[in-house]
């Protein structure tokens, strides 16, 4: 199978200190090896703005869960 999208539902990184240089390298390498896969994060309360910006820089899209809540 070849998935077209991966959705991460909140708290990809629990704390800003969790976004280590090692984790950054691993995630960036993984995303580079899967360029056709659309990756989305619906941010949780621990996904801080700095983390979100970095994720967007490597091609991970940030969704807004309020878009689906009525």
Structural description of this entry:
The protein has 70 residues and is α/β, with parallel strands linked by helices. Helices cover 31% and strands 17% of the residues. The protein has a three-stranded parallel β-sheet with strand order 1-2-3, covered by helices on one side. The N and C termini lie far apart (34 Å).
Total beta strand runs: 3
Biggest sheet overview: 3 strands, parallel
End-to-end separation: 34 Å
H-E string: EHEHE
Strand order of the largest sheet: 1-2-3
Provide mean pLDDT, rounded: 85
Uncertain spans, ≥5 residues at pLDDT below 50? none
| SS class | alpha/beta
Question: What percent of residues are in strands?
Answer: 15-25%
Number of helices: 2
Oligomer: single chain
What fraction, in percent, of the residue positions are helical? 25-40%
- Alpha carbon gyration radius: 12 Å
Shape: globular
């Amino acid at each position: 199978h070849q998935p077209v999208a991966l959705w991460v539902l909140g708290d990809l990184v629990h704390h800003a200190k969790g976004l280590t240089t090692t984790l950054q390298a691993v995630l960036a390498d993984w995303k580079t090896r899967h360029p056709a896969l659309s990756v989305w994060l619906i941010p949780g309360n621990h996904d801080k703005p700095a983390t979100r910006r970095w994720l967007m820089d490597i091609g991970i899209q940030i969704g807004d869960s309020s878009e689906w809540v009525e």
